[in-house]
Amino acid sequence: MNTDRCLSFYLSDGAMKGHFCRLSDSITNALHNHSYPSKINTLLSEMTAISQCFSMDIKSNSQTTMQLTGTSPVKLALVNSLDCKFFRCCATLDQASNIDVDGLSVPQLFGQNGKLVFTIDFENQHYQTIVELSASSLQECFQHYFIQSQQIPTIVMVCSSISDNKIESAALLLQKMPSSSAINKEDYNDIWHEVSCFAATIKPHELLSTGPSMERLIELVFNGLSPIVSRETTLAFQCTCNHEKIINIIKSLDSQSGDENLEVICEYCNKKYTIDKTEIDS
Ligand SMILES: [Zn+2]
User: Fold this and answer.
1) For residue 73, which of 33, 97, 100, 228 is within the disulfide window of CB 3.0 to 4.6 Å?
2) Shared domain check, 196 and 81
3) Looking at the DSSP assignment, which residues form a beta bridge with residue 23?
4) Which residue has the higher pLDDT, 246 or 49?
5) 169 pLDDT tier (thresholds 50, 70, 90)
6) In terms of domains, do 211 and 184 share one?
């Protein structure tokens, strides 16, 4: 069975919903061409898992971009997802900084003015939400995002495991659905309280592939709330760069081309492109 998947599920007849994503081969493939510090691999792998959970609620054929931006030692960490099936990710570090990133909290990694930016592109429309990066952990930053942007109580759990040749990550997102007339407000809050208590029993390693299967874990944890899996997608790393797109980017930059051919490396997949001078001038 494919290990890289995202499942959506409902609890208590649709009063609550959840998304659960596990990544292994896809995130290993996405990061193995880079030589980021282990802390950055952790950050990108966890952001990617959360990003897939975010994307499950968005219309098909949408592109989503999740960015953490700042100044130093990390300028940018970015995950770009297409249709909750394909993703790519990259980070830009401040080359002038010699701060050791290991052990830094999220706000410390991004320095001053750290922001979380989430963008949805759908049929030429562009929706963007920006919140401050204030909480110390990635999961708290995303919980803050939901409170700020949607006023929806949300639980975000995320974890990862990094070894020499394998990267794994997982995220679980639980949300209260807008209240329906079928359930009174008190019962509604009680169900949410139960969801929070059940979620608190999950140990991080259980979210990863060392735990039970994804369906089994949902069943085990939320057994009392009649979980129903409503959607499943499989995920893969895929970069959409190609020779023509690279030429268009260079042209849009409007920089003076010299006499030499240009060598360009894709930030996402590290593929090297050699662009002939005549291709840019044409
Ligand atoms: Zn690429």
Assistant:
1) 97
2) yes
3) 169
4) 49
5) very high
6) yes
**Confidence band for 282, pLDDT divided at 50, 70 and 90:** low
CA 275 to CA 282: how far, in whole Å?
Answer: 12
Q: What is the pLDDT of residue 42?
A: 96
Phi, psi of 49, deg, nearest 5: -65, -45
C-beta of residue 263 within 8 angstroms of C-beta of residue 276: no
Q: Which domain holds residue 119?
A: 5-237
* Angular region, 270: left φ>0, alpha ψ -120 to 50, beta rest: left
| Dist. CA 269 → ligand 1 center (Å) | 4
Q: Ligand 1 center to residue 243 CA distance, Å?
A: 10
Same domain, 253 and 130: no
C-alpha 199 chain-centroid distance: 20
At residue 281, does pLDDT exceed 80? no
Structural domains in the chain (count): 2
Distance 208 CA to ligand 1 centre (A): 27
